[in-house]
Specification:
- About 90% of the residues lie in helices and about 0% in strands.
- It is mostly helical.
- The protein starts with a helix and ends with a helix.
Length: about 180
C-alpha cells in the first residue's frame, strides 16, 4: 500500500511537472515567438512603405499602382498592431502605444507627400519626404527593432526559466522515484 501510494505521488508530480512545462512552452509558441514575428513584419512593412512613397515621387505614371500598394500597406499595419495588441500584456503596452503613435505620424507624413506628388509638386514632395517622412520612417523602424530586441531578451529569459523548471522537476521526479 505504501509503495502504491508513493507511485501515485510520483505520477502526480510527473503530471504536474509536465503540465507546467507544457504551459510555459505554449507561451513561447503562441505569444513570444509571434511577437517577434510581428515586430519583424512591422519593420518590413515600414521599409515597403518607404519604397512605395519613393515610387510615387519617381514614377508619376505609376501613381495609381503605388497608391494601391500604400493602401494595402496601411491595412497591413493595422493587422499587425491588432495582432500585437492581442498578444502583449500591460507591461508592453507603453512601447506598443509608442509604435502606433509613430506609425500614425508616419501615415500623416505619407499622405502629405502623396498629396504633393499627385498635385505634381515633385520638388516640394521630395523635400517634404526627406524632411518629414523619412525621419519618421526611420524612427518607426528603430522602435520596432527595440521592441524586437526586448522580446528576444524576454524570450531568452523565459527559455532559461523553462530549463531551470525542467531540471528541478526532473530532480524532484528522480528523488521521488528513488524514494519509492
Amino acid at each position: 500500500v505504501v509503495v502504491l501510494a508513493l507511485l501515485v505521488l510520483v505520477t502526480s508530480v510527473a503530471f504536474y511537472a509536465l503540465n507546467q512545462t507544457q504551459a510555459t512552452y505554449n507561451r513561447f509558441l503562441n505569444v513570444d515567438e509571434r511577437l517577434l514575428e510581428a515586430a519583424n513584419e512591422l519593420r518590413s512593412v515600414t521599409f515597403a512603405q518607404q519604397t512605395y512613397v519613393r515610387g510615387m515621387l519617381l514614377y508619376p505614371e505609376l501613381h495609381q499602382v503605388n497608391q494601391g500598394l500604400l493602401e494595402a500597406n496601411d491595412r497591413q499595419f493595422k493587422l499587425i498592431f491588432e495582432r500585437m495588441r492581442g498578444l502583449t500584456d500591460t507591461a508592453q503596452n507603453d512601447l506598443l502605444d509608442d509604435l502606433e503613435t509613430l506609425q500614425q505620424q508616419l501615415e500623416q507624413a505619407q499622405q502629405q507627400a502623396v498629396r504633393l506628388a499627385l498635385e505634381k509638386k515633385t520638388e516640394e514632395a521630395i523635400a517634404y519626404t526627406i524632411k518629414e517622412f523619412r525621419p519618421r520612417s526611420i524612427a518607426l523602424i528603430e522602435k520596432a527593432k527595440r521592441f524586437y530586441e526586448q522580446q528576444a531578451k524576454l524570450l531568452e529569459k523565459g527559455r532559461i526559466e523553462l530549463a531551470e523548471k525542467v531540471n528541478s522537476y526532473t530532480l524532484t521526479l528522480i528523488i521521488a522515484a528513488l524514494f519509492a
